[in-house]
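Appendix B, Record 12. Input sequence as logged:
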Amino acid sequence: MKDELEKCFAFIIEVEKLKGITRRTKPLGQDRYENSAEHSWQISLLALVLSKYADESVNIEKVIKMLLVHDIGEIDADDVFFFDDAGRLDAKEKELAAMKRIFGLLPDEKAEELFELWNEFENGMSNEAKFARAIDRVMPVLQNLYNNRQSWTENGVTKEQILTKTAYIGDGSAILWETIAEKIEKAFE
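Logged structural output:
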């Protein structure tokens, strides 16, 4: 029992490193960039608040679990900018290895549960994964919309790139995608 507890502590201490992974988006009103731990917390809360907008019935607890674990691999693989297609392809193997390593710190049953949640999120096939992936994308869009397009401008991202690469929001919630797409169009007028 204590051995399992120590494994859980080791995992939590390892996940602390997520606070040091810098993303490309700044929190509103801040001069610094957000970290991946902040992102995971905020999108989990966003999912809870927006759960009624999922196109299909979802287990919101499962969605939140997915969102809490989906970026843990960045501890080893780092965060790759959403619009960097080549970098994202290169990071996939690193992230998979990282997830196995980090979840491997946990007792086997919990490691398997969290790895399955991560894998389901990555594959985006269930209703929960589709909604979680939509929420994961909605938050950075909202941050850019309400922060003078900060990361889009800094990284030379076009309206067409944004609309094309974020359209899968509609796989999890048509109303969220419709609303977000309208906001993106207005932001570039």
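The first helix runs from residue 2 to 15.
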